[in-house]
Amino acid sequence: MAKDNHDHKHCQEWFEKLSEYIDGELDEFTCAEIEKHVKECLPCYVCLETLKRTIDLCKQTKNKRIPKAVSKKLQDLIQSYPKSTPV
Questions:
Q1: pLDDT at 1 over 70
Q2: Whether 69 contacts 30, CB under 8 Å
Q3: Phi/psi class of residue 46: alpha, beta or left (left: φ > 0; alpha: ψ in -120 to 50)?
Q4: Helix H segments across 16-84?
Q5: How much is the pTM?
Q6: Is the pLDDT of residue 15 over 90?
Q7: In this predicted structure, what is the pLDDT of residue 7?
């Protein structure tokens, strides 16, 4: 990976496309541009790898049930969250 010394003004644009990139929904040119960018930008590389790992973890836990105690705590937390507070 090259040193991270480029202009970061396009990072947000690439960040918004990472999910589509991982899912194979982008054209060849855009994929090549993203691949070039993440080779030169450490924060975007880390973000992409983290997103890939998160997706893999979600796939691994897809069919596992949440323990009832954890589910209850989550439901209670959601119910107690103020309705007027923006998320």
A1: no
A2: no
A3: alpha
A4: 18-22, 28-40, 42-60, 68-80
A5: 0.62
A6: no
A7: 66
Retrieve residue 13's tokens: 């644009």
Which tokens belong to 4?
């991270």
Span between the terminal Cα atoms of the chain, in Å: 36
What distances in angstroms separate CA 67 from CA 4, 64, 70, 74, one per listed residue?
43, 9, 5, 11
Structure tokens belonging to residue 73: 């705590």
Backbone CA torsion sign across 76, 80, 84, 87: negative
C-alpha to C-alpha distance for 44 and 21, rounded to whole angstroms? 13
Question: Both tokens of residue 30?
Answer: 């855009």
Q: Where are the domains of the chain?
A: 8-80
Can you say how many angstroms the Cα of residue 54 is from the centroid of all Cα atoms in its chain? 7
